Each structure stands twice: as structure tokens, then as C-alpha cells.
Amino acid sequence: MKMAVATDRTTEFIMLFSRHSQRIYRFIRSLVDNRTDAEEIYQNTCTVLWSKFDAFEPGSNFWAWSCQIVRYEVLNYRRRQNLERNIFSNEFYNRVAESAMVTVDELDQQQAALSVCFELLSQRQKEVLERIYEPDASPSSVAQDLKRTPNAIYKTLKRAHDLLFSCIQRRLHSGDLF
User: Fold this and answer.
1) Contact (CB, 8 A) for 38 and 28
2) 70 and 29 Cβ atoms separated by less than 8 Å
3) Which of 69-73, 93-97, 126-130 has the lowest average pLDDT?
4) How many other CB atoms sit within 10 Å of the CB of residue 142?
5) Whole-model pTM?
6) Farthest-apart Cα atoms in the chain, separation
7) Secondary structure element (H or E) that encloses residue 162, with its range
8) CB under 8 Å to 79, separation ≥6 — which residues?
9) CA 45-51-52 angle, 5° bins
10) Which of 27, 59, 98, 105 is deepest in the core (most CB within 10 A)?
11) What is the spatial distance between Cα 99 and Cα 65, in angstroms, rounded to a whole number?
């Protein structure tokens, strides 16, 4: 019986962590500008999340709980690396972290809206958008590949961007992200 409870908790952790792992990493990157440092903090955070998961209240907000652990891990890392040098207080870092949490949430909402809105575009608009954002692509090269004029590509891009912008704004304001 005890093994089943442990397996259920392990499964719960894996589900929650996989749902939020990218957000956790983005949150860390918003607090730490050096990618190598952020990756080290992320690894430490993953270990702490797993080791403290028994203290996580089932059904509560895993994202908020994770953010608290991230905040402590970032502060601990700064202390270990002596990066603070008494320039900023812990209160300052806490305020930055609070602001970053809001930013990460907003970006997630925008991404969700973009995914839904992109599907509403015509096949031609999707194709042009996908091609224009490929490495080394230009309106001229896309026009040549699609046997269209650069002006036609610009017009398609403008219409697609306008449609995406208005759709995303509507979804964000209405709260209808899915």
C-alpha cells in the first residue's frame, strides 16, 4: 500500500513538473542573465523540487510553490557566488522575482493565444509566416520560392500580422485562451 502512494506521488510530481518545467526555466532566466548560471540554478531547483515534494500540498498551485523555491535558489546562488556584493538587498531581488513571475505568466498567456490564433490564418498566410522566419530567409527569397512578388509577400505578412495581433488582443482581453 505504501508503495502505491509513493508511485502516485512520483507520477503527480512528473506530471506537474513536466507541465511547468519550461516556465520554471524561463522564470530563472528572467532573474539571472548568465545562461550557464541559470542552467546550474535550474538543475539545483529541480533537485530541491523533487526532494521537497512531500511538503507540497496536493491540489495546490505547483507553479507558485516552484517559484518560491526558485527565489530561494537564486538568492542562495548569489550568496555562494558572492554576486550580491551588498549592491542590492534581498527585498530588491524579491520584488524583481515577483515582477518576473507576472511577466512569465503574461508570456505564457500570449503564447497560448498565439497558438490558437495562428490556426485561424489561411494556409497561404501560415506558409509565408513559417518561411519568412526561417534562418537566412528574406521577403525576396520567400517570394522567389513561392513564385510571388516581394510586394505580395509583404502584403500577406502585413495581413497575417494584423490578424494575429487583433486575435491575440481579443483572446487576452476576454480570457479565452483555448
Assistant:
1) yes
2) no
3) 93-97
4) 23
5) 0.52
6) 69
7) helix 150-174
8) none
9) 90
10) 27
11) 16
